[in-house]
Each structure stands twice: as C-alpha cells, then as structure tokens.
Amino acid sequence: MKIGVPIEIKNNENRVGMTPSGVFELTKRNHEVFVQKNAGFGSGFFDKDYIEAGATILDTIEEVYAVAEMIVKVKEPIEQEYSLIREDQVVFTYFHFASSEALTRAMIDSKSVCIAYETVEDADGSLPLLIPMSEVAGRMSIQQGAKYLEKPIRGRGVLLGGVPGVPPGKVLVLGAGVVGVQAAKMAAGLGANVTILDINMKQLRHVCDIMPKNVVTEFSSEYNIRKHIKDADLIIGGVLIKGAKAPKLITRDMLKDMRPGTVIVDVAVDQGGCFETTKATTHQDPTYIIDDVVHYCVANMPGAVPYTSTVALTNVTLPYVIKLANEGWEDACANNASLAKGLNVVKGDVVYKEIAEAFDLEYTAS
Question: Which residues cross the membrane (predicted)?
C-alpha cells in the first residue's frame, strides 16, 4: 500500500502522524511511505531519518495526498485539505466530527473512508488511541492552569501548592476518566487540594484507592458543581461521551459565581467543550476572559509537547496502520472489531450514530 504522511497545518500543531520507526516497520513489509518534506521537524524527526527508514520525501502536501492510498495524520483535516482528499482514499487520524459540521459534510462529499482514532474502541469500552493524548492533555491542563493563575496573565495570583503558612490552591476536576485522573495526579503532586467529580461510582471508588489524601471524590451533579466553583482556583473540564458532543456542565450564568481570576481549562474542546462559554483557541492565542474568568481552550494541547505526544501516539496507532496496510481497510475492519468502531464516514455515508445525531444526518449502519 502507498501511505502518505503530510505536514500538520493546523495552527501550532507540531506533531507528525508517523515516526521513522513506524516508517521502517511499514517499508520492511514492502509498503511505500511518502513523507512530506520537514513533516517531522517539529517533533524532532528529520528527513534523513525518514529516508534511512525507507521513506520517499515529497516537497508538497498536494503530492503526498495525490500519491497515497492511505493518509496517516494526527489532527483533523482543515479547510485547505478538504479538496485534496480523494474518493476511496483512507484517512486515519483524529477527526472529532461531532464538533464540526463543516468537516463532517466535507468528508461526506469527498467519499473517502474516514477512520477516527478517537472512536477505535476495545471490548472493555476503552479507547486505546485516545488514551495517550488524554494522558498528555490531562497532565498539561494543570501545567497550563498553574501558569495562567499568575497575576500578570490576569489569574487569581495563586500558587497551587501554597507555601508554609499559606494554604494551597483548590482544583476542581470534572470527570474521572483518563484526563481527570491525570489532571488530579499532577495537581495533587504540586500540593493542591483537589476535588474530582463524576457520575460513575465505580470510577470514583478507583480514584479513591489510587490517589493521595489531598484528592477527594464527589458525585457529579449541577448542585455540587455550583457549590465547588465558588471557591475553586482552577477548574478542569475532562468529560467525554464517545464520538458525541460534550455536555455543557458549566453554563454562562455560573461564571458570576466564580472569583475573579479563576482559570478554567476545557480539555473537552475537541468535542465541542463542556463549558457553555468555550470557543476553541490556539497555542498562539490560548486564552480569553469572560466575566473575569480566564478560559484556556486550546484544541490541540498535546501539540505543545510534540516529541512526547508523537511518540506516545504512534506507539498505539502503528499496529492499526500496519493492519490497514496489510489487509486493506475493509478486511482489516471486518477482522478487528476495535478498528471497525473507528469507521465514522465511509464513501459518503455516516456510519457512526452519534455523528449523525449531532447534525441530523442520515445514519447508515456499517
């Protein structure tokens, strides 16, 4: 199979869809890999590394899309790429369709085969290709939140860990999934007082078992959210509904109950965000302020640490890339139930129910 790896052209996205190690694994199986010039530069991988692994370097993104039977990316195609995607071409990447009707309709019109990392699902309900980036984003949410609490950036001026004689900051984490657990772990390590809310009691029991004493759990309800936002310094939104839009857990009217300079970080922004006031931002311009509350809503947080993120992502995507290349997408999905759940849009049909429901589109069972 001919596999293309283009440069990510989303704002400040420095990750790349494949490492030289991944190229080597494919070329030794007699597949051809075409990598756009400097595609890996932002992640610390150079053209010579890809050439040594057996790749062919192409100068432009147009050349990569034109030659490839399968495109392996990191982030969803943006508008400049829509016209480059061909009928029957396989695109394997994060799509997050439920947050963008324009992207969804563009991929329907392209009649390509869209396999989304974020909906590949194992038998136990886990999302193996989303987990590593959720781990990165969860940890980064505290790192970024701590920075934007500083007064020069109009935060509350709170040091999360406190100092002797001064109490530590308070962190509220919405969701006890991968993002929430990693965020709580980082915040607790800094010495903050952490409250994590979720509706899954089994998961809350697990969190209680593994977290230190400065992390407490509570059942998530609107009442409890409204109670805790009043004195939280940093609020992390880490709620996920597979393939669907995130629920709006913090509404506009709740901002008035927060103290000026409170920082909210919406890690669910890729799925539309779990704050009503969320709008996607970039690493170039990451924050905005509404009602004196600092919003950090960067839609590709792991892109700020591209080496770590690229290696972590390709560790889990490569086995699926090999399977798709060896067997073709139809046989690979027929033979692997986890991969089959990654099918979102296939040759003009929406085959993932939550996406169809998000935009009132016709759903076709795959």
Answer: none
User: In the beta sheet, which residues pair with residue 115?
Assistant: 92, 343
If you average pLDDT over residues 274-295, what whole number do you get? 96
For the chain, domain boundaries: 2-120+306-359, 131-304
Measured CA distances, 222 to 13, 198, 218, 273 (Å): 35, 11, 12, 17
320-326 mean pLDDT:
98
The DSSP line for 190-241 is HT-EEEEEES-HHHHHHHHHHS-TTEEEEE--HHHHHHHTTT-SEEEE----
Q: Which residues are annotated as a binding site?
A: 15, 75, 134, 198, 220, 239-240, 267-270, 298-301
Are 199 and 220 within 8 A, CB to CB? yes
> How does pLDDT run across 188-223, given as a tens digit for each residue?
999 999 999 999 999 999 999 999 999 999 999 999
Instruction: Return binding residues for substrate.
Output: 15, 75
Residue 241: the pLDDT is 77
Q: 47, 116 in Cβ contact below 8 A?
A: no
List residues forming the annotated binding site for NAD(+). Answer: 134, 198, 220, 239-240, 267-270, 298-301
Where in the sequence numbering do the catalytic residues fall?
Answer: 96, 270
pLDDT digits (tens, 9 = 90+) for 224-260: 999 999 999 999 999 987 767 789 999 999 999 999 9
Nearest CA to 67 out of 55, 79, 76 is that of: 55
